Amino acid sequence: MTKHLFATIVTATAIAANNRGEGDGSTLSTLQKITRGNDQYTTVSAEAIRWGLREYFQNHYEPEVNRTFNPETDDPKTDDSKTDDSKTDKYSFKDEEFSHKKYIDDDLFGYMDAKKGKDKKDDTRKRRGALEVSRAMSLDPYWGDVTFGSKGGEKGKTSIHNTEVHYTAYQYTIALTPEGLSKPERALLALDAIAAVRHVGGNHARFLYDFRPESIVLRITDDPSPWIMGVFKRIGESVGCPQLVRLIEVGDVEANELIVGGEIADTPYGEQLKTLGVQVYRGVKKAIAQAKEQLQQQLNIKVPA
Fold first, then answer.
1. With 60 as the cut, is the pLDDT of residue 240 above it?
2. Nearest one of 185, 218, 168 to 296, comparing CA atoms
3. Which of 172, 221, 247, 293 could form a disulfide with 253, with the two C-beta atoms 3.0–4.6 Å apart?
4. CA of 121: how far to CAs of 96, 97, 124, 126, 148, in Å?
5. Measured between alpha carbons, how far is 211 from 198 in angstroms, rounded to an integer?
6. Pairing of the two strands 170-176 and 132-133
7. Cβ–Cβ under 8 Å, residues 16 and 199
């Protein structure tokens, strides 16, 4: 039976913002928003989260990463060899032929190189990313908070700028079928990356937001559907998971498939989950370590060196 790994993460609560304007000359940095009922919520793209995961792999497993980014040498302002502004913010590839067997990022995130062959027939190289990431959504409605700032030096019509900010936590889900990877043990590395992701928040990598998990629920199962998306919700000043409790009570999700970690363990929901038979850990890292151990046992895989 194929094993699937799902995880829903709720981040710490912090101030999210986007440090980039809508376009050249713009003085407004907006947050992406989505309407839910009668309220607006801010949202962070899956691409921004994938960026944070890529950054982790580049920092920790650079020899096994195909696509790398160096903000120093790729910036024409600091690299004399780069004189074209269009070269800024671009990746460097070790191998544009790609290899999901050789490279972690090609295996987890997939790739597509659309081109025509010599005979003008389709010669596109592509692979669907095995690691699926949902868009992150704020737990709290956005009420239009804005801050103002000004730039130093010579003043102009764009000297004063304003930035939308949102004090909130974000929730998102990942899905991965380890046996769909060229090297299933890379699922263990993906779990490590989730606990260490940074430079996410506001849809690009310039604004620091604490995007690490404050609480996490992991599910290792034969069921191909996650069921655990969106199970966290704001309750008072804290975060709860009444939907997760209900899913277990009605038998839609087996308690022994779940591992829960983080601050949710210290809430009444943590006690309820324990009573229902869920493995509950006060620490996120311990919960992830337990998930890695179970994956190793169930899939007979080893931790990569």
1. yes
2. 185
3. 247
4. 19, 17, 9, 15, 53
5. 6
6. antiparallel
7. no
Mean pLDDT for the stretch of residues 127-149: 92
How many other β-carbons are positioned within 10 Å of the β-carbon of residue 184? 21
DSSP state of 72: T
pLDDT at position 302: 76
**DSSP notation for 159-202:** SEEEEEEEEE-EEEEEEE-GGGSSSTTHHHHHHHHHHH--S-SS
d(CA 297, CA 292): 9
Tokens, residue 261: 């970690």
Query: CA–CA separation, 37 vs 55, rounded Å?
Result: 35
Residue 304 token pair: 């990569």
User: What totals of helices (H) and strands (E) does the chain contain, helices first?
Assistant: 6, 19
Residue 300: what are its φ and ψ, rounded to 5°? Answer: 55, 50
Cβ atoms within 10 A of the Cβ of 156, count? 9
Residue pair 187/4 in contact (Cβ under 8 Å)? The answer is: no
* Residues in contact with 174: Cβ distance below 8 Å, sequence separation at least 6, in sequence order: 5, 6, 7, 9, 131, 132, 133, 134, 190, 194
Q: What is the pLDDT of residues 108-124, one digit of tens each?
A: 999 888 877 677 677 78
Mean pLDDT of 248-263: 98
Structure tokens at 163: 């930035």
Sign of CA dihedral 257, 292, 287, 105: negative
Backbone angles phi, psi at 177, to 5 degrees: -105, 100
Look up tokens 């050249």; give the residue. Answer: 24
